[in-house]
Amino acid sequence: MSSPITTTTTPPIHDLAAQLRQIGLKAIPETLDDFLTRASKGRWSPHMLLEELGRAETQERSRRSLERRLRRSALKSFKPMADFDWSWPTKIERDVIERALTLDFLPQARNLIVLGRNGLGKTMIAKNICQAAVLAGNSVMFREAAAIIEDLQAETAQGRKGKLRQYANVGLLCIDEVGYLTFDDRAADLLYEVINRRYERRSLIVTTNRAFKEWNQVFPNATCIATLLDRLLHHADLTVIEGDSYRVRESEQETAARRRRK
With b meaning 16 or more CB within 10 Å and e meaning fewer, what string describes 115-140? Predict the structure, then answer.
């Protein structure tokens, strides 16, 4: 008695795409028709087909990873360093900033402190360094000091432990605008916890408009300021920017332009 003849059929494209998604592929299911057409026209060997599949998936995963890191960093919009006017400040250590943009301080767990009055580009510089870190594959969090403190104060004791772990373990943490608002001593304790947990482990970027001798005015009655600064500055590059505000200059230029048009 002869054995029954079995036949195999090629699953429809949509079924194949669903199966590829089920095993975790992301790029190929979305472009399956095009991928198979290119494979057919190019007469790809099985080995070449798998190479192309692997390459497409690797690129897609890298793209998605970058998107996630950028989203979690909360950098939002900012001007690139190509737009930075190095000639405007009366004092700026360009070499320190450009070296920081190479991320050389990250492997050493060093900190970068950018000090200067309002409107001199501290945040712009910090965001560009953070973006460079994201593009290099690092996890980054960019937060204003007030946002970090509010975030930690709003949590329960157990929730605060989880938040502190996030701030402690992210590859690069930028604490922006320390000194623009005043806080109570409890806020200083929370900021100290963040800095202390990263001490000699992971890098910080801090921007501030206040000299360190004035931080007692930012955190009145806080007893931990000396210890906080000791941890922050122990392994740190400090750069000071001096001059008049860019924003004031731009406002004056816009006002002058409007007057000329009248």
Answer: bbeebbbbbbbbbbbbbbbbeeebbb
Look at phi and psi of residue 221 and say left if phi exceeds 0, alpha if psi is from -120 to 50, else beta: left
Q: How far apart are CA 186 and CA 232, in angstroms?
A: 18
Kindly report, residue by residue over 112-152, the tens digit of the pLDDT: 999 999 999 999 999 999 999 999 999 999 999 999 999 99
Q: Are 207 and 122 in contact (CB under 8 A)?
A: yes
Reported in sequence order, the residue ranges of the chain that DSSP labels E, i.e. its strands, are 111-116, 140-144, 172-178, 203-208, 236-241
For 92-195, strand residue ranges (E) read 111-116, 140-144, 172-178
The type of residue at 189 is: D
Rounded Cα distance between 124 and 84, Å, is: 8
- The encoded tokens of residue 117 equal 């009055």
- CA atoms within a 13 Å half-sphere pointing along the CA-CB vector of 172: 36
CA distance readout (Å), 93 to 58, 113, 179, 240: 40, 12, 22, 7
Give the span between the Cα atoms of 83 and 89, in whole angstroms: 14
Give the residues across from 251 on adjacent strands: none
CA 188 to chain centre: 24
SS3 155: coil
The pTM for the full model equals: 0.82
Instruction: Render the burial of 180-193: b for 16+ CB within 10 Å, e for the rest.
Output: eeebeeebbbbbbb
Sorted by where each starts, the structural domains of the chain and their CATH numbers stand as 13-69 (no CATH), 81-248 (3.40.50.300)
